[in-house]
What does this fold into?
Amino acid sequence: MKMRPGISNKGYGTLHILLPFFSTVVIGQSAVTLPVPETVPSDAVQAPPNFVSFGFETPYLDNFANEFSENLVSSLAKRMSAKPIIRIGGTSGDRVLFNADLKENKKCVEGACPFSHQTTWELGPGYFEAFKKFPNAKMTFQAPLRGGEAGKDDINIERTLNYVRNAYNALGKERVESIALGNEPSVYYKTADEYIKNAIKVEDAIISNLTLKGEDAKIFQALDTLSPAAQSHKPYAVQEVFAGPDGINKNGRIKVAAEHYYQEPGAGKEDWDANKQQGRVMNHTAIARRLDKYMQSMNSVQNVQYILSETGGPMGVSVKDAAGFGAALWSVDFQLTALTRGIKRVVDSGRPIAEHTSWVPDDSTKDHNGGPQVRAAFSADMFVADFIGKNPGRVVELKVEQTNHLLSAYAMYSSDNKKVTRLALTNLRLWDGSASGGNRGKQTFIVPVGNGVKEAKVRRLRADKGVGATGFDVGGGGSNVTWAGEQWSFSLDNGKGHFPTGKAQVETVQVKEGRVSIDVPDSEAVVVDLA
Ligand SMILES: *[C@@H]1O[C@H](CO)[C@@H](O)[C@H](O)[C@H]1NC(C)=O
Ligand SMILES: *[C@@H]1O[C@H](CO)[C@@H](O)[C@H](O)[C@H]1NC(C)=O
Ligand SMILES: *[C@@H]1O[C@H](CO)[C@@H](O)[C@H](O)[C@H]1NC(C)=O
It folds into this structure.
């Protein structure tokens, strides 16, 4: 097979077909030919079967523990060959207090009650029943470290053990993936040494209280680094905490090294607009450059999984920007970039009131966001899970010749014959059908395929309204978002998923002269299966 990198516009429809009643003439983008190595490149990484993951902020676990959320988790689990791992944690997870006499599940007692992550909750025995839900998932839960507002209280081992013991017992040993040692500790421990000392103290107490022996004691998740600290290494990140003979893993009990990633954490403090969404969020180079800052930490750990355990796009902005279709496309590109760099898991974090949450689980925040709903961003996780599939092979990012940073492409090589079997292509050019978006452009990708490939099957992550779409539950029937023809909704399917046209949507594209040509409209992403 010939590799044909670069731009090619020979005879591949670079002019959009224009309907006569449109007055403006839109010149289409040049077709891009993807350099797809025919056999697996040496820098391809093995895709983990449980890469895609959800997360619930600690005190809201019981809000999520219902049939609707279980159905959404099942929608993910059935696409995967391993159980998804749900993360229970967050800022408020360091502050929780156990109250054995509390009749309700929980009571908000301090801070910005009851919706913020900056809150302290008392948890009763009823809260822990929620750990028994989600039978087809495992969980990582957080051992509370320092408590009180802004972590001002000292570590209290009794308090820590109360949460850990109750969670561990309710979940059952088999479903405990790991126990996280606090959250964003640089907020309250100013040096790596201080964190290491206290985290190991907690490890020791947990191991003894749960009587964990041998391999069972290698159960801890370290750090959950604050996003800016993870990027700047100031005051410390995974690299600093693992370094040297007195590093956090000196006892060999760390299973997972975790850091947090937000694309634009301060977006809500600006006048956020489409230009910023395009330039800083829906932009492959902006994503890749931010991820570059995590690579030193990732490469510094051995025999430990390196994951991003809390993630989000633009924060504190409208639901449309934070969890609408633009955010879904950001999520796809971000997850695939992380995947092809060897990051082992990316956790999509949820809290009922948060603008960026992929779904609102219940009525608790009804007055603020209308109650239970699936948002566009949820579909990104289904897309990535299906790209990885049930028989994950090795994956690599493909170089796309371009000037505007708004296209990306990824390839998967099958685990058995090492041939390319699947591609993911994104066109992040922002098109908003709810604004005066003009005509929607498209990108043609030309893919040279190897001998033996007869056809390509194309599945699309799409919305008629482009980034104006928020999903059926939020925006109604004009705001649909579908992945391969499937849509998820609270009101229509209780999170089980349904096909608005009655069936899955898969297009077949024939191979011509050893190549397939795939059109991806602006603000859309596709998965292409080669067979
Ligand atoms: C674990 O801690 C609880 C509460 O402090 C205590 O009742 C129990 O005996 C401890 N178990 C072990 C094995 O130390
Ligand atoms: C995408 O991000 C890169 C890096 O920040 C920037 O140079 C480029 O201009 C951005 N592209 C667009 C279309 O805003
Ligand atoms: C949007 O989805 C709903 C629910 O499946 C369906 O009834 C409706 O026809 C869809 N609208 C469009 C424009 O496809």
In short: The chain has a mean pLDDT of 92. The longest helix spans residues 192-209.
